[in-house]
Amino acid sequence: MIPKNKIKLCAKNIVNGINIKKEGECIFITGGTYAQELLEEIGLEVYRKGGLPRISYTTDYYQQAIYQDPDISMKTLETPHNHYVKLIENIDAYIVIEPLENPGVYVDIPREKLKARGKTLAPIRDILYGGKEKYAPGKKWIYAGWPSKKAAEFYGIEYEMLERFTVDGTAVPAEELHEITTNIGKFFDDAKIVHVKDDLGTDFWVSVEGRTKILDDGILSDEQIAAGDLGGNLPAGEVFFPPIETLGEGTIFCPLTKDRYTNKIIKGINLVFKEGKLQMDKITAYNDLDILVESFKQCEEIDKANNVPELRTYNVAELGIGCNPKIDKAIGYILTDEKINGSVHVAFGGNKMMTGTSTSQMHWDFVTTPKATINVEYKDGTKKTVMDAGKFIP
Known about the structure:
With about 400 residues, this protein is α+β, with helices and mostly antiparallel strands. About 30% of the residues lie in helices and about 25% in strands. It has helices spanning about 5-15, 35-50, 60-70, 75-80, 80-90, 110-130, 150-155, 160-170, 175-185, 220-225, 290-305, 335, and strands spanning about 25-30, 50-60, 95, 140-145, 190-195, 205, 215, 230-235, 240, 250-260, 265-275, 275-280, 315-320, 345-350, 365, 375-380, 385-390, 390. It is globular and about 60 Å long.
């Protein structure tokens, strides 16, 4: 059982992550019933800050039944939720606590029904992340993890580990994370090219020249808001960039990840990209490669239907370096995997929500082992190894 003081501390850090600026801000809070105590503490903390919370709960049973009940038609599943769209248009910030107690409930849902779900969520994502010009720059948002015994079983780990990663990882004081991310961020001042390698096949470079360096310490600062970076994940703990989307090439080896739609765990992924774009015919995986490819295609279909300015479903969207002191192992849960000390992650798809230029329904992070080596080429032409086998060099 998670102590009450830890729950309150996590709630405080989550609310600090949306930076309530004035009284009367409307905050929509949603998550699974298994996290009810946290959701209510978040609501109370919002009230203390002068905000106006509205909490929405859901259950695994309900989420699974929506897509498996034979009496619920595809036509209904594909119908836009206009009332929900209006609600999101009228809020100031959106807080999501991991809605599924057991991520495995989506594994056996028919793919066509998950595609219908993706279509109905597209207008919501456009509003939240400013995907369309009329909604720019979007809303303030936080997506936070929370532990359950069912989730730990799904990831094949002890519950205590998942609690350490999500609860203790979220409870790390912002001041501590700020110091860590600031020190790491200094390695990338005036960086032009970042080259990443490891001994499992990762070997790529991307360009971050002229791009915003974001220190993810769990606090949404006024400077981030001004730059158009309006949200983040908790637990926090990374330094990341939206790299130049049409530059960079190489291979990323990701030991394991969770599919964006079906939640199936996919292992041993080799991703090849050139001129910033994934080469889909060259990707390999130990299992379920077809599921990974289909998720990208599904987002591509939605992006085309949305008439995005330029199709960027497959383009590089993010370069990140993990640094949360409480997280030290990949489990397939991207929310915590990307914060592992000594790991590097690259995302493909949309990055407009982090001051980039790509609009897409896809944003999928692929995390290396925590033994990456990073070489930086600076604007003045000098080069430096800043991290060797997962350890930063003083």
